[in-house]
Amino acid sequence: MSVIPKAERVALKRAIGMLDYDKKKFAWSVAAGSGAIGSGVALGATSAWLIARAAQLPPVLQLSVASTGVRAFGVGKAIFRYLERIASHWVALYGMANLRARVYSSLAHSTTDVVTSVRRGDLLARTGADVDELGDVVVKSMLPAAVAFIVSLLSIGIVAFLSPPIALVLTLCLILSGVIAPYIAMRAARADQISQITHRADLNAQSLTMLESAYELRVSGRLADIDAQRADTEQRIHKSRDRSARPSALATALDTLAMGLAVIGALVIGTQQLAAGDIAAIDLVVATLTPLSAFEATQRMGGAATQLVRSASSAKRIVDLLDVADSTQHPELDTRAETDDGLRAAHLQIGWPGGPTIAGPIDLHLRPGKTIAIVGPSGIGKSTLLYTLAGMLEPHSGSVTINGRDTWRLDRAQISTQLSLTAEDAHIFETTVLENLRVARAAVTAQEAADFLRQAGLQSWLAQLPDGVETMLGADATSVSGGERRRLLLARALAGSATYMLLDEPGEHLDPETADELIRDLLGVGNDERGVILVTHRLTPLDVADEVIMLGEDDAGLVGVVARGTHAELMEQMPSYEWSLTQE
């Protein structure tokens, strides 16, 4: 059975193609790497000849060329090694950048369920560590294998010129060192890889859960349990690594054994040839010592084989993710002519692709100048409704249209000019305030950014910034308060100039007064040029909304619209709404 399954070999071939690496620079790196180790082989052969010839006490001038060659090969080895590092890492780093951009682009244009169907820790591993592993296959597998092949041929050629029988022994030993030992290392790496794929994904997910939900876990008393699970996962990883180390150690021992056998075989055969007069004494010394340098190339093959296994596994994970993303990112485009109908949902049933319908039917109509608030218990489907309205999820039934065309069938770049969605956990980047707003529209100027911040209610905050909109922010807005962060996200949405704004839980994790003030301001941006749909748990500030839609379960347990109207109308019609408002 193959150490690397066919599916992984196919995936690795595809992934290497996605690296789109510069083949000319890779050829230069192979030439430089071969020059480095080839210089070592030549240095060994020249040094051996020089030592043996010097023992015969010839005139010094007869040794001058060899002495110069020793110095040249010694310096050349370092120079070629440096050139190899530059060329190979240039190829690998640009290849990883190309592949990572390809992954991000596919995920960005795919439907939301592609990303959310993968655990966050596992998604982080696929877009981070797995891409790095594929970049390493160039430097740590393809390059060493090519160099080892070229240098082995060079070494065998030198020795064959002096003694064909010794060259045969050297060939067999190089096969042991460069093929058999790496195969054993590959089997060990494969066993380790299989056992660690699940464990590492579990560890990433557990670590992210502990980092991001530490307070909730501590309050619920589950933090110690999650930490114990993390420690157990780490222990399983360590045990798996220890088990796989034994075959790897055997592979290393075989490599050393092969080098020793090559030297011993050269001595035994060479001594017999010397006695028979078939080889000169100096040639015997060269044929014996040259293999010591030749094995420098095959010593890297164990690591190259191990890296190949890791890269093949990573390639399979990345290709699987891309295949799912690519299969969902090109629905049949809606080419109907635009109307002036606004954002409309009709008899809408929502849910995740392949999953059950979780809510519906839902009808709503948003036009510029109108504001709609959507309320309901946690987990009822409010965020899923926003994703569906934004065209990120396909409706289970019914329709969602923007200006008469299906939102989920529109090109993402096209719909983003008309509609923006600000998620609850939208990211603030570790860069300037201005660049954080340019995420929505790259052409935003400093003056426009200041205007958007003022519209979002951040005029006082802006005045306190040391460098204005050029002020650097900490990672994920750690240098700003929760309310300022939410308003900064509002300013980003305003910078996008979209006609319709969808906002998911903007007051989450804020104190009630700050949340209410923020929600009132958000609903206030719905002027004659903008329409706003806002999902929230807070009811107090909804007196400024044009319409409030309440989602809930009916008597049959089906989720849908249980009430709608203005804030005042719901207070009159629904005692539960008035009671919730009183509790706030």
Overview of this protein structure:
By secondary structure, this protein is an alpha/beta fold. It is 64% helix and 10% strand. The strands form two sheets. A six-stranded mixed sheet has the order 6-7-8-3-9-10, sandwiched between helices. Strand 9 (547-553) and strand 10 form a beta hairpin. The mean pLDDT is 82.
List the helices and strands and how they pair.
Layout: H1 6-19, H2 23-54, H3 64-109, H4 112-116, H5 120-127, H6 129-162, H7 164-212, H8 214-220, H9 223-276, H10 281-298, H11 301-328, E1 343-350, E2 359-366, E3 371-375, H12 382-389, E4 397-402, E5 405-406, H13 412-415, E6 419-422, H14 433-437, H15 446-455, H16 459-464, H17 482-495, E7 500-504, H18 512-524, E8 531-535, E9 547-553, E10 559-565, H19 567-573, H20 575-583
Parallel strand pairs: 3-8, 3-9, 6-7, 7-8
Antiparallel strand pairs: 1-2, 1-4, 4-5, 9-10
Helix pairs in contact: 1-6, 1-11, 2-3, 2-6, 2-10, 3-6, 3-11, 5-7, 6-7, 6-10, 6-11, 7-9, 7-10, 7-11, 9-10, 15-17, 17-18, 19-20
List keywords for this structure.
20 helices; 10% strand; 4-stranded antiparallel β-sheet; alpha/beta; elongated
Helix-strand sequence: HHHHHHHHHHHEEEHEEHEHHHHEHEEEHH
Low-confidence stretches: none
Give the tally of β-strands: 10
* Strand numbers in spatial order across the main sheet: 6-7-8-3-9-10
Structural class of the helix and strand makeup?
A: alpha/beta
DSSP helix fraction: 55-70%
Number of helices: 20
Strand content: 5-15%
End-to-end distance: 66 Å
How big is the Rg?
34 Å
Q: What would the principal axes of the Cα set say about the shape?
A: elongated
Largest sheet: 6 strands, mixed
Q: Compute the average pLDDT.
A: 82
